## 1
Amino acid sequence: MSEAAVEKALDQKMNTVPFKMVGRDVSVYYGEKRALFDVNLDVRENTVTALIGPSGCGKSTFLRTLNRMNDTIENCRVTGKITLDEDDIYDLSIDVVELRARVGMVFQKPNPFPKSIYDNVSYGPRIHGLARTKAELDAVVETSLQKAGLWNEVKDRLHEPGTGLSGGQQQRLCIARAVAVSPEVILMDEPCSALDPIATAKVEELIHELRANFTIVIVTHSMQQAARVSQRTAMFHLGNLVEENDTDKMFTNPDDQRTQDYIMGRFG
Ligand SMILES: Nc1ncnc2c1ncn2[C@@H]1O[C@H](COP(=O)(O)OP(=O)(O)OP(=O)(O)O)[C@@H](O)[C@H]1O
Ligand SMILES: [Mg+2]
């Protein structure tokens, strides 16, 4: 097959990936201030979607609408519709705790609980009743730490505090904690910004592997990171979704001038 034919086949493949989450006319207000304007964005299954754009453009705000973390912010109001599979996640019948188990989150600053490594990972499965016996719980802890690429580094110190790990290890612990409840989607808000280049590379590699089993949405300020880890990229500017496209296209031949300017470092 010629290079063009391969590319076309890949494009077609990308275009047939089912949508895991769909956002329609999503607007967000903080009191009187409107932070997002009628955003229409689809999140594809088993795909890494990167959200990029200058500071204050609404990336974190949009990310938080996907598991209703905005509910925790006073004065914050969301309009429009967001579905997970077919479920409207803002419907009154939705149990938010259950929703956040299906759509997990990893934050910018690693935030392990002030507890042991074991307890950090086993907490979610315990409260969600995902393990019936100690042996089952042990197994969930081990596989989650393995998926987060941390098992070998911590297997002999599971009962030491999570806060005693290095920054990069703590972030992988937080990823293990997110993975432990078997979420369908994992949201990551600048997960590497507090990490050094080596720890960043580890987390990026991990994101690449997690994609096989999870749908991932990641906010990043690093164009290189977006290009390395994502298959789809969405560009925000002043609360608007400017463009959403295959990552390769976004970084070589974007449709919108604002995307071009941003990735060339002309603003932001
Ligand atoms: N809790 C809040 N209360 C009031 N306004 C907020 C709140 N959080 C965000 N905003 C406002 O909403 C807009 C979008 O903010 P958001 O944090 O989503 O941007 P961002 O793209 O994630 O920026 P950054 O790259 O700096 O993290 C900004 O104008 C911001 O000031
Ligand atoms: Mg942000």
Note: The mean pLDDT is 93.
## 2
Amino acid sequence: MSTLEIRDLHVSVNTESGPKEILKGVDLTIRSGEVHAIMGPNGSGKSTLAYSIAGHPKYQVTSGTVTMDGEDLLAMSVDERARAGLFLAMQYPVEVPGVSVANFLRTAKTAIDGEAPKLRTWVKDVNGAMDRVQMDREFANRSVNEGFSGGEKKRHEVVQLELLNPRFAILDETDSGLDIDALRIVSEGVNRFSAQGDRGVLLITHYTRILRYIKPDFVHVFVNGRVAEQGGQELAERLEAEGYDKYVRAANAAATV
Ligand SMILES: Nc1ncnc2c1ncn2[C@@H]1O[C@H](COP(=O)(O)OP(=O)(O)OP(=O)(O)O)[C@@H](O)[C@H]1O
Ligand SMILES: [Mg+2]
């Protein structure tokens, strides 16, 4: 069993007028076997949190800690974090012209496992993963994400999730841009991953829709760079009905004291 622990995390980005603090003391603990959903208004820092954990160089951690089973993730390079078992599905997956999906997946798998996957089983695994998200096998020959529709990019993220099988998956709006069938297919992929029982999921989303398919153990409301409220599935329902107004006003009031 593993634990991903974020303690009092402060993160800034460089802007033309100097560093700007985006994350203002995030506390979050995810244990293997758990599904956590983060919901919050646009610009509250959800993607910043995802990128900071994964090690994007644009984000400067000014204080706080991120550990996996006590190991300091912040001291690791991006690929070390991936090898330690961290996976990030980006809100806007990057296009990589000239690198085929097949090549990309095999290279990533080799880098993470420290050895190349056996060719015979690997092809079967890739085909199976693509079939399960109803992604045409032809995609294997296309450049990574290039010209993919929004929904195709998200399905491709789930293929990666299945093949790389990390210990902790951070999924940033993996439900955005999906049609009704794709939402179910992608959700089932995430559920298969988490059904292994010893994996952790951090799901960033705007919609309670996906939470009909993926049942979170914990829901966190993220406002103004920190977790403002935590609860169970019922909190997501309440947010849907009431919106974020209450939390935004409380955060603003706290900021002006
Ligand atoms: N270079 C920058 N200069 C100024 N502000 C920045 C810069 N980079 C990021 N930000 C700000 O950081 C804040 C947090 O952005 P982030 O993408 O983490 O939000 P989010 O919660 O993921 O929003 P969304 O729900 O729209 O995806 C935003 O207000 C954004 O404008
Ligand atoms: Mg975002």
Note: The first strand starts at residue 3 and ends at 15.
## 3
Amino acid sequence: MTQAPTRAVGPKGFRSAELGWPELDRIPHPPRRVPFLGDVLGVNRHTPLQDTLRYARRLGPVFRRKAFGKEFVFVWGARHTADLADESRFAKHVGLGIANLRPVAGDGLFTAYNHEPNWQLAHDVLAPGFSREAMAGYHPMMLAAARRLTEHWDRAAEAGRAVDVSGDMTKLTLETIARTGFGHDFGSFERPRPHPFVTAMIGTLTYAQRLNTVPFPLAPLLLRSASRRNAADIAFLNRTVDELVRARRADGGGQGDLLDRMLETAHPETGERLAAQNVRRQVITFLVAGHETTSGALSFALHYLARDPGVAARARAEVDRVWGDTAEPAYEQVARLRYVRRVLDESLRLWPTAPAFAREARQDTVLAGEHPMRRGAWALVLTPMLHRDPEAWGADAERFDPDRFEAPAVRSRAPHTFKPFGTGARACIGRQFALHEATLVLGLLLRRYELRPDPAYRLRVTERLTLMPEGLRLHPERRTPVREPVSEPPCPVPGAGD
Ligand code: HEM
């Protein structure tokens, strides 16, 4: 599906929302605005999202904040979000944090403007890489990455040591996307420190977030040394990816992974291929988009499982029942873990790890019959608040309860109330990949370990464009008996659902 181009935003995507909202004055904003600076009193620059959630609770389903002269409209009401999901009137807006990633990811899938031809080309060429068939091909590689995690956790369990959950989930998901996407091994579990690629990547994500917290015209001055470091990080990412592509071209390909598709597949209708520079941008895009978010989702789910023994017992009983004593689950056996999947969904409800997405008006329109918007005006959907809207989720929306995702409960809710993967043509292409990987890993960990939390731990959330539990450590204890993996391939389960 081709997206109609919407009005182009400035090169940095920093056009303030106020330009396109004729009745902006009717939208509430925090009290105590400071001239020029805006709503910055009491703002913690490390937790801008959580600050915004606090304002959302006070100001209601549509509100605005001004930072350094730029005005942003936030939306989280279920009714308003459903309206923004109407693809005939709204499209993705590339702005704020996403636009800040353009120097590194350019017109890669995630950061492409709607009107850029490479979006449609790459989307059409790469979408088959996320088909059911492709996913079944990735499954053994996902299992291999998970085995490296459990070897690491086994050693911690034997020594009675706690594990760094978010750190280990990040290693796991990076190795998984690197292996399944590009046949690459970063050796994350074998290194004492993160791979330099990871350090550079986190550097660019953090820099992109920091750009939003300083007045735009002063950024070159205030962030001079950070900007130099960022340029060096980008150069390092580019060099690493170019080397990876060179090696693939040299060995002739044939792995059938995403990189093969990027290099060899022509568009089914036009015969066009991705240009070399675009391949570089797509590889970086997938390495970044394909692991931080899933790592956060797994970490939050493990936090809730460790904190709630009743939920963990139900999930574990399901894994034991569905997987029996097969050494390693077959592809089809993963989607049968319905309760584990609900645990994951509920974790993504409370902490959608990509916590906002922006939508812009394709033409002059009125949001939810209340707020006029001109063509090109945009708003940020604040997903963690949408997922807590009492209208959709009830008065106990803050409570962790996987049963909210039982089929009848899901059917009884209005559409567009659960949006961790965004919406429409620009929604997450890796959704099935992430859900399969995360359900598989949760199943494997539940089957192998009891997860003992630190009783003093209280959830703290760290922000660097994505969300992650901070300082989460768990004590894994081996359950007995657990069958060891065998080398022959596991038997598929006939007639398994998806
Ligand atoms: C739990 C894990 C994940 C979450 C919560 C998540 C969330 C999202 C969201 C909200 C968007 C839309 C952003 C927007 O509208 O601006 C998105 C887009 C995207 N995601 Fe994911 N994602 C996850 C995992 C993955 C994985 C595993 C991959 C790749 C293997 C991936 C690749 C992408 C790409 C390439 C896009 C851009 C799609 C386009 O515009 O055509 N994501 N993701």
Note: The pocket of protoporphyrin IX containing FE is lined by residues 92, 98, 109-110, 123, 177, 285-286, 289-290, 293-294, 297, 352-354, 357, 420-422, 426-430, 433-434 (CB under 6 Å).
